[in-house]
Specification:
Elements lengths: L7 E3 L7 H6 L4 E4 L15 H10 L4 E5 L4 H11 L2 E3 L8 H10 L6 E5 L2 H11 L2 E5 L8 H19 L11
Parallel strand pairs: 1-6, 2-3, 2-5, 3-4, 5-6
The chain binds magnesium ion.
């Protein structure tokens, strides 16, 4: 029942303790795109994301795994020059498996970072890798995400009653 509690929970990608991840021998950062790296309205990759990712490239392999179509990712591919897997169908683990095999990682060398319990965190848990939840960048969500948010809120309310997890109570 506590399946969806993330390994870490921080406000945004800038607040992640990347030094800690490095010291834990994490080699691959798998980022969600929408509402994690940028909001839906950011058709082009924001400057702050370009500089963060370029910095992180020195220490990690960066892969973006998104459920959005390829069209959405084209400007990001151009700006960031990292591997992007689109139509990933998270919470299915296919994309994570593909990354592990391609780079010959151990599962404990990979972490998935995203804003949704029902896709990003569940995919990570299903596959057995570390998970980092961030708050969504914007209120705006796709239709399917709106449904996921309703389920997510129910789960979070349950966790909160048990003292297991609370929105805005960050931890690493
Ligand atoms: Mg997202």
């Amino acid at each position: 029942m506590n399946k969806l509690i993330p390994t870490m929970y921080v406000k945004n990608i800038e607040n992640i303790n990347y030094n800690k991840l490095r010291s834990e021998n994490i080699k691959c950062l798998i980022f969600d795109l929408d509402n994690t790296l940028a909001s839906y309205s950011d058709l082009e990759c924001p400057e702050r994301v370009i500089s963060l990712i370029n910095n992180l490239k020195k220490d990690f392999n960066i892969v973006i795994v998104t459920n959005s179509p390829k069209k959405r990712t084209v400007p990001y591919k151009k700006a960031l020059n990292v591997e992007i897997i689109s139509f990933a169908m998270k919470p299915f683990v296919k994309a994570l498996k593909k990354i592990k095999i391609k780079y010959n990682y151990q599962k404990d060398e990979m972490v998935i970072i995203g804003d949704q319990l029902m896709t990003d965190i569940l995919a990570g848990k299903n596959y057995g890798i570390k998970t980092i939840l961030v708050d969504p960048l914007a209120e705006k969500d796709l239709k399917i995400t709106k449904i996921n948010r309703i389920i997510e809120n129910r789960i979070i309310n349950k966790y909160q009653k048990k003292g297991l997890f609370e929105r805005g109570k960050y931890y690493e």
